[in-house]
Amino acid sequence: MAEHLWDKGKTTNEDIVRFTVGRDRELDLYLAKHDVLGSMAHITMLESIGLIGKDELPVLLKELKGIYEIAEKGEFVIEDGVEDVHSQVELMLTRKLGDLGKKIHSGRSRNDQVLLDMKLYTRAEIKELVHLCRQLFDVLIAQSEKYKNVLMPGYTHLQIAMPSSFGLWFGAYAESLVDDMELLLAAYNITNRNPLGSAAGYGSSFPLNRQMTTDLLGFNSMDYNVVYAQMGRGKMEKTVAMAMAGIAATIGKLAFDSCMFTCQNFAFMKLPDDCTTGSSIMPHKKNPDVFELTRAKCNQIQTIPQQIMMIMSNLPVGYFRDLQQIKEIFIPAIDQLKDCLKMATYIMDKVKINEHILDDPKYDFIFSVEEVNRLATEGMPFRDAYKKVGLDCENGRFTPNKDIKHTHEGSIGNLCNDRIQALMDKTIGEFHFEKVEQAVEKLIK
Ligand code: ARG
User: Which of 9, 78, 358, 404 is the one with CA 20 to 30 A from 286?
Assistant: First the structure.
């Protein structure tokens, strides 16, 4: 028999319950410790406005802290017949404390509770994403520096074009992550505002102290307007998903390049044996499945903003159960992105580089522009030099000078990795995760 917070003595069809609960029992586990944190802040505030007794607060907080620890250990379960994490926490409290447990929901609704849980959960996950992006970034910069003098062909239209280098290639993906962090920072700032107190979406006649819960939970500010706070459900997820899509696009492209460059026809890079997978029929195979799956998963992640938008696109103001469905899309995508980041970091660190790609004469023409520029520097008009070298190439008279000299910012000979690193440091510093950590630590202490 199901136990519902909203139970008024009438039974609900079990199939309807199954259908409406959906995957909440599984996905709400991600929210458990955040739900408890939110309740701790909420009841601390309720005590301050006289809705919970001075003597009652420590009892409730102690019990909640116990539940927090259970959740931290990954041992929190939502029992059969219990609808969601919010119901489960309240059930655990009332089982232990009786009527006292029933007091905590004053001035709150599951609508602002789940809004808050999603924000606290997402805030913590963004921190992990930033950390993982930083690790990948550091590996990419290290590889860029290590191989800065190893040249490779650059392509346009997938036709050999101009000299490039592994310094440029690795460094390009590092710098791409810098911009991705900038977008994630904007999404983080939107996430880091407190919706608690909006209740069902219209506030409460209790004199709630919303600034107090904002401070207790380490939020930067609150979503002030209670109607807007409720509108944030799904909007926050969509915004973060867009930033995640940016990261996924970077890694997906890196994965595609890596698939291509490890192909024997290119043979620019080699995966270490422990990163390849075999074939059931072809004994020689060492396949880059890891890059292929990374590519596919990153493409999938880039569909998440659209999926969320489709769920929200025709919803008017106010809460709707439709919004629950967003959890199913959003939460697994975060796990998937973290997985892809870990894979990319591991492999980019271990990948072996072919240092002699350009010994192959089929790449000689990538030095044609170098020759044009040399002639132009000596005084020949650019267009004449272009024509001369073009004809030399046609007639088999072109001999490349592979000793190239590129000096401007961001070029082969002047990667500016230190400046790219400084940009990354600056952006990551602006998240101020320490502020959140301190608040959360204080709350659970
Ligand atoms: N599981 C629900 C969700 O994710 C919780 C909020 C329920 N609120 C309601 N009014 N039925 O949206």
Answer: 358
- Per-residue pLDDT tens over the stretch 97-143: 999 999 999 999 999 999 999 999 999 999 999 999 999 999 999 99
Domain-located, residue 226: yes
Instruction: Say yes or no to pLDDT of 284 above 90.
Output: no
Q: Is 8 in the pocket of ligand 1 (CB under 6 A)?
A: no
Q: How much distance in Å is there from the Cα of 324 to the middle of ligand 1? A: 6
Instruction: Identify whether residues 148 and 279 lie together within a single domain.
Output: yes
Residue numbers of the domain that contains 386: 360-414
84 lines ligand 1 (CB under 6 A): yes
CB 217 within 8 A of CB 209: no
Has residue 9 been placed in a domain?
A: no
Q: Are residues 295 and 351 in the same domain?
A: yes
Mean pLDDT of the chain: 95
Q: Is 230 in the pocket of ligand 1 (CB under 6 A)?
A: no
Assess if residue 2 is contained within a domain.
no
pLDDT-based confidence at 2, cuts 50/70/90?
A: low
311 and 437 co-located in one domain: yes
What angle is formed at CA 399 by the lines to CA 393 and CA 400, rounded to 5 degrees?
A: 100
**Do 225 and 344 reside in the same domain of the chain?**
yes
- Report the domain count for the chain: 3
Based on the fold, state whether residues 272 and 377 are members of the same structural domain.
Answer: no
Q: In the prediction, which pLDDT does 10 show?
A: 75
**Residue 8 lies inside a defined structural domain of this protein:** no
Ligand 1 binding pocket includes 199 (Cβ within 6 Å): no
Write out pLDDT tens, residues 53-75.
999 999 999 999 999 999 999 99
Residue 54 contacts residue 144 (beta carbons within 8 Å): no
Residue 32 and residue 135 share a domain: no
Q: What is the distance between the alpha carbons of residues 338 and 341, in angstroms, rounded to a whole number?
A: 5
Phi-psi region of 209 (alpha: psi -120 to 50; beta: other; left: phi over 0): beta
For atom 4 of ligand 1, the residue with the nearest CA is 324
| Cα–ligand 1 centroid distance for 372 (angstroms) | 67
Boundary-marking domain end, from 91, 106, 121:
106
CB 229 within 8 A of CB 156: no
| Contact criterion met (CB below 8 Å) for 62 and 12 | no
Ligand 1 pocket test: pick from 31, 111, 119, 231 the residue with the most ligand atoms within 8 Å of its Cβ: 111
